[in-house]
Design brief:
The protein contains 30 helices and 29 strands. It is of the alpha+beta class and about 1000 residues long. The strands form 6 sheets. Strands 25-24-20-21-23-22-26-29-27-28 form a 10-stranded mixed β-sheet, sandwiched between helices. Strands 1, 2, 3, 15, 16, 17, 18 and 19 form an 8-stranded mixed β-sheet that branches. α21 crosses α26 and α27 packs parallel to α29. The longest helix has 28 residues. About 0% of the residues have low confidence.
């Protein structure tokens, strides 16, 4: 049965099944074919978050509803933790500026260029500054918002500036529910009554009849559409309230209009300036849409109308509130122009860089913890080694730039290499330049989506602080293939704020418990109607290990104010009885001392043997680095050959020659900027070398499906060799990489014989691919993962074999990827814990379930294993300072797996190749130790065998192998 909204939509649309958000996905898949889905390095260009349905097929079930084709769902967490506090923060800054402007104080910070010839702040209004004592500074500002991705993997609501649709469209659009479908008139009238009561103290009894109370509405002039300003359609209830040109003004107390002050009827202007009439909104607050230079710039730079308002809000990157990109002006001094002219705007010529390798917690405000600021011109354009340092590439692709005569110099997200070069030369010639950092808007299919949301705020009389009015119109979303939503053909959608009772109850909890509840609710929703297994639910919780699930539920019940039903809602989603641990599939091969010894020796040979320079950029061509090198060659090629040889030998030993395959996926390393001081990059550019991912393909019964176990086989530069603050001298030397990431590489190598044995017995339901990815570390930045994901999405995965032939893998569908990254260091502060971090889709959560079951099987078996004569009486494992000395046999560890989905602030998926797979829609789970960002042994000289915990790492390697086997052997997991 159709809902009432469905029936009203059907009444105004010809083809209800192909309207709204369905149109955005109508051409899916649009990305197949070589070069159709490039994935840049996130350190060079942060791409848009892709929502609704990702390229490889992962569907977001929470965003759209089949029964609501025009709805865009906004979760309770987005509204409460990002949008509401963010809008309040923006309102305070803009209201402060407006009050200074109205008082005639220069502290308003609005440049002369924005005010000159501005019809919203004409001379008549400017002359009255300081004499507007009746003004209450009501803001009805139409903001442009979208969700963008940051370098911590967070998809954040972001302020782009003022709505490019003009000052009115968002406001009036908020009184509709779908095209031509008005929200109930009572809602609009109630909003106006509450606004007048809050701003002007009008008694409620007077507001029962708005017209009689002296409230009127004046539409924008009829020619506004010709000037690119959209106001309508308007709800029907506004008609009786429209101002009649013949109506005397002495009966009118309040006039709502988005017309420029200069275009208001002269009697209205005079009445306002005399204090006899209140204008809503404060007319000066609309000046952002009248800044003439930015109107000119918008003819070349899409959405430049957003920028004047954005200048009025400071940068914000913290995890709560709205993300606000930095904007302003920079100046490169010349003899003719020694300083920025004061008419242009705020001088903000320095920038604090952030990056995904930073030693800060994901839920910290990195800007507050960072002291270092770099010159903005260096941040945007410099590829010199002293400016790039260890983690900072040029950011011009994520910026827009214009000249003092408001000519576009660079539209970074759309720029070519030639465009960047041209902008760089312009800046080098000196002068002043406007800029804003521009992170691409969220996309559904090929459509960029913006939310045009009204900011309804006023001054709180008692405190003088900004106050947001509750329950205001929410505006409208536009989705457009064209770069400029104001010009292109758009699909309009309407925000639906979710009001799910258990999630609303979670919002009121302390942060740690809020996240715990969210994880349980989201996991249940992703996995379907079946109850969550109790052990899996416990693994989702961040809580002391001695607390059971029932303990946690009891404590939550005591913390929730009555009559909260939250605990009951959670219990209804949980299985009643615990599940017994599953039978193991592979532990007979991996829970052995021989496996542990082989694991140790394999890591040692990779980390502290002949392979020394293992970063893709090696060898760096500066004197400091060159002087400290053991040898002047990049060892990645030799290491890759060693890995390929290992798999060929394993295949031959298993009698699988001709059935299992080994090969490589070669490609060139390409960047927007030139880095000739990196020899690895330079050899790629010259055609003297190529990068490559390595794959061993182990066949299953269904060759159209595959499960991947992946690592990265490159290593990072050592911070304590480079950073002066850590005793370094600027040398870029590759780490030994015992933990990061040879601990993972060794797991793949030891897993090969186990999977080959299963394949030979016909036990694998699908293929298993062992994939060694190249270039995860900076400066390559997930290079191999990006190349593999692009090939998967575009359907062109070709394996090159040793004999020069090739094998087409593009017909196989990847059912899941387990990424291993740093799995052999047991955190001294929280022992025997590791993380299972799934990506953002239901299939990823199912992979996490399998990994959790594998962990249960391991931990349940350790009691029996430790009773064997070889382990009986053994203590916990101890580290060995010598790679040649294998640690003594120890007790098998019962590991605790913490399942950390993307909403968990301790998930480190973003810090790995796993983020690339998740963003592309490939189901993925990260296996990682309980990562301690401040420990010794991460990206430094201490990443050696002395930091490896053999009992821990071998157990985690065995669990990873078991997880892949469980997925590859269960046909149900492989259903499309």
């Amino acid at each position: 049965m159709l809902s009432d909204l469905d029936e009203r939509i059907d009444a105004v649309t010809d083809a209800p099944r192909m309207v709204g958000w369905r149109r955005l996905l109508a051409d899916w898949p649009w990305f197949t074919g070589a070069g159709r889905y490039p994935i840049p390095a996130y350190s060079e260009f942060m791409p848009p978050p892709r929502l609704g349905r990702r390229a490889y097929g992962a569907v977001d079930p929470a965003l759209f509803g089949d029964d609501d084709p025009f709805g865009w769902r906004v979760t309770e967490y987005e509204e409460a933790l990002e949008l509401a506090p963010g809008l309040a923060h923006v309102a305070q800054q803009l209201l402060d500026a407006m009050r200074h402007l109205a008082a005639g104080r220069a502290a308003h910070g609005i440049s002369k260029a924005k005010l000159a010839d501005n019809p919203y702040w004409p001379e008549a209004l400017a002359r009255s500054a300081g004499r507007l004592s009746h003004e209450r500074f009501v803001l009805l500002l139409s903001l442009a918002l979208t969700r963008t991705q940051d370098d911590k993997g967070r998809v954040r609501w972001t302020l782009l500036g003022a709505s490019e649709l003009g000052p009115a469209r968002a406001f009036w659009g908020g009184f509709f529910a779908a095209p031509g479908v008005e929200a109930p008139a009572a809602r609009g009238l109630d909003f106006l009554r509450r606004l007048l009561r809050a701003a002007y103290g009008v008694p409620e009894v007077e507001l029962r009849d708005l017209r009689g109370a002296g409230f009127r509405f004046l539409p924008i002039a009829s020619d506004a559409a010709d000037r690119g300003v959209r106001e309508g359609p308007l709800p029907a209830w506004t008609r009786p309230l429209q101002l009649d040109a013949s109506e005397p003004l002495d009966r009118i107390r309040f006039l709502l209009s988005f017309r420029p002050f200069a275009e208001l009827p002269p009697p209205v202007q005079r009445a306002y300036l005399a204090g006899e009439l209140h204008l809503l909104p404060f007319p000066g607050s609309l000046l952002f849409w009248g800044a003439q230079p930015y109107q000119k710039l918008a003819q070349q730079l899409p959405c430049a109308q957003q920028i004047p308002l954005l200048h009025g809000v400071g940068r914000h990157e913290g995890p709560f509130g709205l993300r606000v990109p930095q904007s302003g002006w920079l100046h490169e001094a010349t003899p003719e122009q020694p300083a920025l002219h004061p008419s242009h705007g705020p001088l903000r010529d320095r920038f604090k860089r952030t990056h995904r390798w930073a030693r800060v917690l994901r839920h910290d405000d990195e800007l507050a913890l960072t002291d270092r600021e770099d010159l903005l011109t260096h941040v945007l354009f410099s590829a010199l080694p002293d400016d790039v340092r260890l983690y900072g590439k040029p950011m011009a692709r994520n910026a827009q730039l214009w000249s003092t005569d408001f000519q576009c110099l660079l539209d970074g997200p759309c720029a070519t290499h030639a465009d960047i070069e041209s902008a760089l030369h312009a800046v080098r010639r000196g002068g002043s330049f406007g800029y804003r950092f521009q992170y691409p808007a969220m996309c559904v299919g090929r459509h960029a989506v913006h939310w045009h949301r009204p900011l309804v705020a006023l001054v709180e009389p008692s405190s003088g602080r900004a106050s947001l009015l509750a329950d205001t119109p929410l505006g409208v979303l536009t989705a457009c293939e064209d770069a400029d939503p104001a010009r292109g053909r758009t699909v309009e959608l309407w925000p639906r704020l979710l009001q799910r009772e258990p999630h609303l109850a979670a919002i009121a909890l302390p942060a740690a418990e809020r996240v715990n509840v969210q994880k349980l609710l989201d996991a249940h929703a992703l996995l379907g109607a079946a109850p969550l297994p109790r052990s899996f639910a416990r693994a989702l919780l961040t809580a002391p290990k001695h607390r059971t699930l029932d303990d946690w539920l009891a404590a939550l019940a005591a913390a929730c104010p009555p009559p909260s039903r939250l605990v009951g809602e959670l219990q209804a989603r949980l299985a009643v009885e615990p599940e017994p641990p599953p039978a193991a599939l592979t532990y007979a091969r991996s829970a052995r001392r021989s496996f542990e010894v082989a694991y140790w020796k394999t890591i040692a040979s990779l980390a502290e043997g002949r392979y020394r320079t293992k970063n893709n950029a090696d060898c760096v061509l500066d004197g400091v680095t060159q002087a400290r090198l053991d040898h002047r060659r990049r060892d990645l090629a030799a290491l890759g050959d060693h890995l390929l040889g290992h798999y060929r030998s394993a295949i031959a030993a298993a009698g699988m020659a001709g059935r299992a395959l080994v090969g490589e996926l070669p490609f060139r390393w390409q960047t927007d900027f030139d880095f000739p001081w990196m020899e690895g990059w330079l050899e790629n550019r010259r055609g003297e070398a190529a990068e490559r991912n390595l794959i061993a393909v182990i066949p299953g019964r269904d060759r159209s499906r595959a499960v991947i176990l992946a690592d990265h086989y490159d290593t990072a530069y050592m911070e304590d060799c480079y950073e002066e603050s850590q005793g370094g001298d600027g040398a870029r030397l590759a780490a030994a990489g015992a933990d990061d990431n040879h601990s993972a590489t060794a797991a793949l190598m030891l897993g090969a014989p186990i999977f080959l044995e299963l394949a030979r017995a016909g036990a694998l339901a699908c293929d298993v691919w062992l994939v060694h990815l190249t270039g995860e570390e900076f400066p390559a930045d997930c290079l191999g993962a990006r190349h593999l994901c692009q090939a998967l999405v575009e359907g062109r995965l070709e394996l090159r074999l040793a004999d020069g032939g090739s094998h087409d893998l593009s017909k196989a569908r990847v059912a899941g990827v387990y990424v291993l990254d740093m799995i052999a260091h047991n955190n001294d502060r929280s022992r025997d814990v590791f993380q299972i971090a799934p990506g953002a889709c239901a299939e990823s959560m199912r992979l996490a379930q399998q990994a959790h079951r594998a962990t249960e099987a391991w931990s349940a078996s350790t009691r029996a294993w430790n009773r064997r004569s070889s382990r009986r009486g053994a203590s916990h494992g101890r580290r060995s300072a010598s790679a040649a000395q294998v640690p003594a046999i120890a007790r098998h560890l019962a590991l605790h797996a913490e399942v950390r989905p993307p909403c968990d602030p301790h998930s480190t998926l973003y810090n790995t190749d796993g983020q690339i797979f998740s963003d592309a829609g490939v189901p993925v789970v990260l296996f990682m130790e309980n990562y301690d960002i401040n420990r010794s042994g991460y990206h430094d000289t201490h990443d050696t065998m002395a930091n490896i915990d053999l009992d821990y790492g071998a157990a985690l390697a065995a669990i990873a192998i078991e997880s892949v086997a469980r997925v590859a052997m269960e046909s149900a997991m492989l259903a499309p």
